[in-house]
Amino acid sequence: MAKAVLIVDDNAYIRKALCDLFKQEADFEVCGEAENGKEAIEKAQELRPDLIVLDLSMPVMNGLDAARALKKLMPAVPLIMYSAFGDELAEQQARLIGISELVSKSEHASVLIHKARGLLYPTAA
To answer: What angle, 0 to 180 degrees and rounded to 10, lies between the N-to-C axes of helices 88-97 and 63-73?
Structure first.
């Protein structure tokens, strides 16, 4: 059965690209989208995704604050921070909060899919 992914990014173009990327993979399905951290928390509680892909920098509530709340609500759901970060401090903070993987938007899209599979299908990674 395909794993459900929630895509969270304030940029509509990036959200669509990520949705298209995951929809091309037979073992994933996009269960929803959110454009900020507050919306991500609401959607995650409603949709119960298997994985959440979060942007770091968003209006209303950023990715780190959203991740903190999501980890309390759904500790078993892995989080991938997909961002244009390049800041070691933000990366360390993300790891401390419980974000499983960090993928830079400058990396090839296949890196995101590979890391998602590694989290959801540990034996296949």
So the answer is: 10
62-94 burial, b at 16+ Cβ within 10 Å, e below that, comes to bbbebbbbbeeebeebbbbbbbebeeeebbebb
Note whether residue 125 is domain-resident: no
Domain containing residue 42: 3-120
Q: What are phi and psi of 25, to 5 degrees?
A: -95, 125
Per-residue pLDDT of the chain (125 residues; tens, 9 = 90+): 899 999 999 999 999 999 999 999 999 999 999 999 999 999 999 999 999 999 988 889 988 899 999 999 999 999 999 988 667 777 788 889 899 999 988 888 899 999 999 999 877 44
Q: Quick check: 41 and 67 in contact, CB under 8 A?
A: no
Structure token digits, residue 95: 């790891």
What is the number of structural domains in the chain?
1
Find the radius of gyration of the CA atoms of the chain. 13
Q: DSSP assignment, residue 77?
A: S
pTM check: above 0.85: yes
